[in-house]
Amino acid sequence: MGQPVRDYLLTLCVTAAVTYLLTGPVRKFAVAVGAMTAIRSRDVHREPTPRLGGVAMFIGLCAGLLVADNLHNLNGVFAQSNEPRALLSGAALIWLIGVLDDKFEIDALIKLGAQMIAAGVMVMQGLTILWLPVPGVGTVSLTQWQSTLLTVAVVVITINAVNFVDGLDGLAAGVVCIAAAAFFLHAYHLWYGYGIEAAAPATLFAAILMGMCLGFLPHNMSPARIFMGDSGSMLIGLVLAAGPISVTGQVDPDTLKLFEGGTRGATHAALPVFIPLLLPLTIIAIPLADLLLAVVRRAWNGQSPFAADRGHLHHRLLDIGHSKTRAVLIMYFWSALIAFGVVLYSVMYSTQGSNWVLPVLVGLSAVGLVLLLLPRFKPRAPRWAESFVPPRYRRRRRRGHGEEAEAGGGAEEAAGGLPFAEGGADAGAGPEAAAVPAGVNGATALGARSRFTDRGKAGSAR
What we know:
Elements: H1 5-33, E1 36-37, E2 49-50, H2 53-69, H3 75-80, H4 83-104, H5 108-124, E3 131-134, E4 138-141, H6 144-165, H7 171-194, H8 200-220, H9 229-247, H10 253-256, H11 262-283, H12 285-300, H13 313-319, H14 324-350, H15 357-372, H16 374-377, E5 396-398, E6 404-406, H17 410-414
Antiparallel strand pairs: 1-2, 3-4, 5-6
């Protein structure tokens, strides 16, 4: 069977096109039925925005699976494995719960139970972790209960990690798309690099997930015209978890010929066996860190882990002075660095050519830290370059009686020192900003956050 690069690309494009074209009508439907995200004290958006974006994403998922089933190089996945049907069954259940939540705001514990049931449905149809490769021991077979509990835990943790990170325009869809792209490269390398056909379903799931996110992102980037809601965030979280669940334990050490070439050669060749244990954590490293920090923070403050607050990573980036767009791009950068870094290291390490990978990753991490702390430094451009940079980087000039003002940018200092984003400023600006009219969906609106009450449900990402 030839390498189905074009078939994967076609599946991705069809999924993205269906999602993109349906998101507009879904937005109008959400407005008509009143599925709107109310403004709460922890939110960044400044105007009620329709959700239910997960409806278009779910139809895109169905379209991608349908197209793949009719392609010569991909229909073997459906003939040899029941995992695509298991994914569709679990996705349909979690999507339905998400749609009801977007409209009626279901309790957080009920959603948690629904997530467990959706994971159980996938387990019953064969999408489960059957073996675990343990370093120094080999492949360990799991009992039915161990397999079920581990699979349910992976699904629930991934779903809630994605849900927690869904707090800024385009953030969750972009981070998941980056994670899916990294996992696609890993699964594809297992399939065609080592001839492991068991990695075929995971490769297909990653390609379809990329299409779902890419099709939705143009509608969700700042200023967002629609939110994915829990119907979308829980859906892409479940699909993201399905890939690692499918491929973990499916790599046969004998297939990789681990014991050829001495001990060092065996160590290099064995890395693809163990990387599926690490990759699920690395591809959602940013959402998972946000989830763990939120649970610890709320428990430390005596709150329920499901109690909503304004202490997520993207909120902290806004608090130190980043614009909404820059905060999203920074989280994109770190997600890509961690996910692609691990995949690249695994591929290069298995071929004994990874000496340059670690220094490159360290250098990029240093760049990321500089970007992360950039608002603390407030650099100023020289006089001759002031006309080429934004007002916030220009030097102060005196205007009569020793009064100072920023050249062309005094409003920034009045707004609390936060740099302006493209088309507006970050939420929570000073009182002078209250007179500025709202733009599209409130993305350019300014105003004091305290005038909004927290009317949202517990555990919601927005």
